[in-house]
Every structure is written in structure tokens, then in C-alpha cells.
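Dear support,

We are seeing what looks like truncated structure output for some complexes. This example has two components. We would appreciate it if you could run it in full and send us the complete C-alpha cell output so we can diff it against ours.
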Amino acid sequence: EAGVTQSPTHLIKTRGQQATLRCSPISGHTSVYWYQQALGLGLQFLLWYDEGEERNRGNFPPRFSGRQFPNYSSELNVNALELEDSALYLCASSSWGQGSSLNSPLHFGNGTRLTVT
Amino acid sequence: QKEVEQNSGPLSVPEGAIASLNCTYSDRGSQSFFWYRQYSGKSPELIMFIYSNGDKEDGRFTAQLNKASQYVSLLIRDSQPSDSATYLCAVNGAGGSYIPTFGRGTSLIVHP
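Here is the complete output from our reference environment:
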């Protein structure tokens, strides 16, 4: 069974540009989560998508946005990049969704390392 | 504000010893608890999860949950240098939330 896949592995952008990160969940998983992990910091929740809809978002500015496609893959867009956006962006999928068990764990992809210069 | 607290470490143990990693959480309604291992520069990988009070064993790993004390721990028996990593505690389910909250992690160093 293929795991969660993310692309690209590395992304280098300059301040003010836009970045697009992509994620494909494990087959059968409908929930996709995005987390940001800045150097030396913990995982900060960004966005949760399930069944094509945004279910929740973390405490991040609106320039962080995304979407989930009918095949449950997802895209994270970061507009007007700032230096402090440099981080590892992790996508995770889960078999839980609205109304399902809360005990299903998250399975993470290998992440996209975004560097803003 | 849901909080998950972990000692950042590093926790240093000799090879073959038992490593004990601890985590406390603030929301009494939390229902499921997860331990992840993260090697430097890599993504977190699930070690095990627990949702009932008591102990749960999987190979060299034992998770312990005490909901009354809002405390979850991970024991690693016969620690190996390859266990050297950051261990993340995650908590979910409070108020029907599907958003796991992660601690900042404890760095474990197993020295030969």
C-alpha cells in the first residue's frame, strides 16, 4: 500500500512569491491534514480537509489556503511568501472523517521543505 | 487552549537501558493518544496509540495512559542507538475534535 506522497521535496522561493505544495493521501483515506514545522518548533496545525471540504483551519493568516480534489488529493497554497514561512510542510491523511472513529492515527508524508529567500 | 507538554530534553540513556518519555495534556476530554518518532529532517512516523487507561505493549515499546492525571508515557526497553530521535506526543478527541494537538517533542539520545 502506497503511503502519503508529497511533492515537491524541496521548494525554494523568494519573498513575495507564491508556493504550491501537493499531497496524495493513502488510498481510501478521505481526510487530509496540513501541518507546518518550523525549525526547532513543534507541529502547528494549518488546515484539515475531508470529503472535499475545508473542515477546520489553524491560527494562520488567509494567505495560507488550499483545497481538496475529488480524488482526495490536496493542495496547499501560500501567497505573498515571507521569510518566516520557511519550514517543513507536512501532509497527513487519516481514515477518520466526520462521524468516524477518533482513534485512527495520522499517517504523514515525507514533507516539503520550503525555503524563502 | 489545548496544550500538550513534553520535556524537550535531551534525554540521554545508555544502550540497553529503559528510556521513559512523558507527556501531559490539558484537556480532560481528550480521547486518543499517539506517540510518533521523528528522525532529524524526516517526517513523523507512528509508533503506537492508546485510548484506554493502563498499559499497551508493542515489542520494545509500552504506552501508559492515566486519564485521571492527564498523563501519557512511552517506555522503550533495551534502547538502541537507532532509537535516537525526537518523540512526539499527540492528543485528540477533546470536544469531538478531529484535530490532533502535538507536543514539541522530547529528544532522545541512546549512547553506546
